[in-house]
Design a protein that fits this description.
Elements: H1 17-28, H2 33-37, E1 39-40, E2 46-47, E3 82-89, H3 92-103, E4 109-114, H4 122-128, E5 138-142, H5 151-160, E6 170-174, H6 176-183, H7 191-204, E7 211-216, H8 219-222, H9 228-248, H10 253-258, E8 260-266, H11 270-290, E9 303-307, H12 319-334, E10 338-340, H13 353-369, H14 383-405, H15 409-415, H16 417-434, H17 484-497, E11 504-509, H18 513-528, E12 533-535, H19 543-552, E13 557-561, H20 564-574, E14 583-587, H21 593-596, E15 604-605, H22 611-621
Parallel strand pairs: 3-4, 3-10, 4-5, 5-6, 6-7, 7-8, 8-9, 9-10, 11-12, 11-13, 13-14, 14-15
Antiparallel strand pairs: 1-2
Helix pairs in contact: 3-4, 9-11, 9-14, 11-12, 11-14, 12-13, 17-22
């Protein structure tokens, strides 16, 4: 067989970017290119409709293989993440029993969450870890306060046990800055005491090379409504603050960097999440190198990814399975070291054996059925994902530097700079939810019409989670969920309906078939978001016929669904026939609105309506 360097498909002329752009402009037929095809992300950069090889010319890291500095393409040549399950420890014996059980079901990393009532001693850890091979299972301690810190105790257990301490992989999420963010003050009493205690914990585990004793809990930002860029940039800033404090205390840069683990939330922004992990590794490698680390192993970013809570819902909770599946997939493709898929019902009740089993199997599916662990950096070379990675590197680095100009992470936190940025982003996302520019399936878009919640739920489910201590020194971050205000609205209707008739919205459909069907569907979704009963119809010949049917159905809200042109005749004919207590709504924002409003017609629902605000007003009108 003769080898040849002849280019395939050479008979086809190359199409240049200007030629593509000319064709696109022609097909748009006068529409604005930027508005029609360019996506403006919450992170503040634009995503083009397509990319080409020429867009990657200036990316210096493209030729670096996975496992090679700056580790953009992965910290290891093999993409084999750990499947982690967290266990709340109320009894050391029972927690050990559960740990051994789940280890036989596909889990190879455990997270132990203590209840903070007492500090676990070495003897308690011996009970907790009995029968667990620490060389084959990663152990993680999720410590929410200084009272449940087990760093030194665990290190002693490993030293005195039969295991090869070089192979024991573990972490303890000691994070005084994270505590400061949530509680408003250091638990140790003062800043010097907090970092002195942290240095002691790092030194306590320094002889265990795979024991990471500092946790950068970037997930706190994500669960408070921060953007992908903000979570990444502020997490890197936290990591840099820890590097500074530890090295100033005499810890070498290599030891300090190897002590840090990043804990990220995963949002539903699939491709951005893949790119975020790649960008994070790239930036952290350069940061650690700039701090003076010499060992390339120290420059590798160790990331645990956990499905975020911000986009999870109480209503239609099985949709959470779809959300967590794509989130886990993006973390796996992005090269996370370990992943926790939270059970679909975790936000509103104690998880069951059923929901925990599904959460485990979601990751096993990605490995055993999808074979994602057989490919390292599947995103590598994709024009789109490489440009997303580069954009996140640029945006996160800019915000990282801006935080540094404030004096570093802690100084920026004391100034309120970080809280302000996160609060503004969360507010913007809330507004987007209200206007349905961002959709949450089953909550502000396409709700399950037949779903009701009858049991009494904790009111805190529908409010931000405030962990602020007494006499805080700073404004704190508060966890929230994108859909909690909508869910509070719907839950209020469900509670009302337990002792009253459920309010009903009746679709009075007339005229143009296509328009009335489209507007009836829109209106049914609109009112079902608040838990109202919605009654659709095939159409009526006269307004009298439609109104009679609405009254027979006992509807409090009558929604006229037709075309803009026909509203000019239908609505004036209907208004005089209405009773005072009947609420008339027009589906759409017709040109004849100015003529209808003098008749007393004030309710118009359309794609630009503030869904949350208007549904709240309808509830108030019905005394709900």
């Amino acid at each position: 067989m003769t080898k040849t360097n002849e280019r395939l498909f050479s008979e086809f002329p190359e199409v240049t970017t200007p030629q593509w752009e000319e064709k696109i402009q022609a097909d748009l037929k006068g529409k604005d290119y930027e508005k029609a095809l360019v996506w403006r992300t919450n992170e503040g950069f634009s995503v083009r409709p397509y990319y080409r090889a020429e867009d990657l010319r200036d990316l210096s890291y493209l030729n670096a293989a996975p496992g090679v500095f700056p580790f953009t393409r992965g910290t290891d040549p093999i993409n084999s993440w750990l499947i982690r399950q967290d266990i709340v420890v109320t009894s050391f014996t029972e927690a050990n029993k559960k740990a051994l059980e789940v280890l036989g079901k596909g889990v190879n990393a455990l997270g132990f969450i203590f209840d903070c009532s007492t500090r676990p001693a070495q003897e308690d850890l011996s009970i907790l870890l009995k029968g667990i091979c620490l060389e084959a299972t990663e152990i993680n301690f999720v410590c929410s306060c200084r009272n449940c810190d087990v760093t030194a105790a665990f290190a002693d257990v490993v030293r005195q046990g039969p295991w090869n301490k070089e192979k024991v992989s573990a972490s303890a999420s000691n994070d005084p800055l994270g505590v400061m963010m949530l509680k408003g003050r250091f638990e140790e009493g003062s800043e010097p005491e907090a970092f002195t205690a942290l240095v002691e914990k790092v030194k306590a585990g320094a002889d265990l090379p795979k024991f990471r004793t500092v946790g950068v809990n970037g997930k706190f930002f994500g669960n408070s409504g921060a953007s992908v860029v903000q979570e990444l940039a502020f997490s890197l800033s936290m990591g840099a603050e820890y590097l500074t404090r530890l090295t100033d205390a005499g810890v070498t840069p290599d030891v300090a960097a190897r002590a840090i683990r990043f804990n990220f939330s995963i949002s539903n922004n699939y491709f951005l999440e893949v790119a975020r992990l790649r960008a994070g590794r790239h930036l952290w490698a350069h940061i650690v190198k700039a701090w003076g680390a010499a060992d390339p192993e120290s420059m590798k970013m160790n990331v645990h990814s956990e499905t975020g809570r911000f986009n999870k819902t109480v209503y239609d909770p099985y949709v959470n399975l779809l959300r967590t599946q794509t989130e886990a997939m993006s973390a796996a493709l992005g090269g996370a070291h370990s992943i926790t898929v939270l059970p679909f019902d975790e936000i509103f009740r104690d998880s069951s054996e059923f929901s925990e089993r599904i959460a485990r199997n979601q990751q096993i599916l990605l490995k055993e059925e999808s074979n994602i662990d057989k490919v390292t950096d599947a995103a590598g070379g994709s024009y789109y994902l490489e440009k997303l990675t580069d954009a996140l590197v640029d945006q996160a680095w800019t915000l990282f530097q801006e935080t540094g100009d404030k004096g570093g992470f802690l100084a920026a936190l004391r100034e309120g700079f970080i809280q302000k940025k996160v609060r503004e982003m969360a507010g913007r996302r809330d507004q987007n939810m209200a206007l349905r520019r961002e959709n949450l399936l089953g909550v502000n878009q396409f709700p399950n019409f037949t779903e009701t919640i009858r049991e009494e739920l904790d009111p805190s489910l529908f409010q931000p989670c405030d962990l602020t201590s007494e006499a805080p020194e700073i404004e704190t971050l508060q966890f929230s969920r994108a859909g909690q205000r909508f869910e509070a609205l719907r839950y209020r209707t469900d509670r009302y309906a337990m002792s009253h008739k459920r309010p009903a919205a009746f679709m009075l459909t007339m005229g143009n078939l296509a328009m009335r069907k489209a507007r009836a569907q829109f209106s049914c979704n609109f009112f079902a978001v608040a838990g109202f009963e919605v009654i659709d119809n095939n159409g009526f010949a006269t307004v009298e016929e439609g109104l009679a049917a609405a009254r027979q159905a006992g509807a409090e809200i009558i929604v006229v669904c037709s075309s803009d042109e026909e509203y000019a005749e239908i609505v004036p004919a209907l208004v005089p026939l209405l009773k005072k207590e009947e609420i008339l709504v027009v589906a759409g924002n017709p040109a004849c609105r100015a003529d209808l409003e003098p008749l007393g017609v004030t309710n118009f629902i359309h794609v630009r309506s503030n869904l949350l605000q208007e549904l709240t007003q309808y509830q108030a009108s019905l005394n709900i």
